[in-house]
Design goal:
By secondary structure, the protein is mainly alpha-helical. It is built from six helices and no strands. It is elongated and about 90 Å long. The termini are far apart. About 5% of the residues are buried.
Length: about 180
Amino acid sequence: MARSTLDRLPKEIREELGRLREDGWTIDELLSKLQELRIAGRIDLDVSRSAVGRYVQTMDKVGERLRRSRAMAEGLVRQLGDEPDTRIARLNIEVCQTLIFDLINGEDGEGAKLDPEQVMFLTSSIQKLTSARKTDAELILRLQTEADKRAIAVMEATAKRKGLSADTIADIKKDFLGIRKAS
């Protein structure tokens, strides 16, 4: 895809255009602002109305995607509440997988045209996601094991305080916690 004239503007000017657009400025108002900047010598490009229109459409699409992502994230955070970090980690993995899927398929269904370096980065991202899933699973197992150990320790202390025998404690572990008597 050809670069827009506006892509050649300095970063601070593009950021200012983004802020103005977020504030509701129209294509014509943005074009006037660019003409003012050109007259003032801050930019040396002659920008057409159609270039500003295309740029605004792109900004609007990106803005809409960001709004949807934020809304989804806020909804998920509300839904997760005070859940452990593992749910957030899984959510991040799912979001990354969705982004990769969207990149591969593209908005129009044709998919992105990737050069070898981009394929390498995409492959690396997939490997990192796989590693993240494994790390997440290991963390969940570790947290569950630690929670089980704490629960057993509390249960054993309470049982001993109440005068229960070692056999009764072992039966409770087996029946209620699904844990076999330690050897």
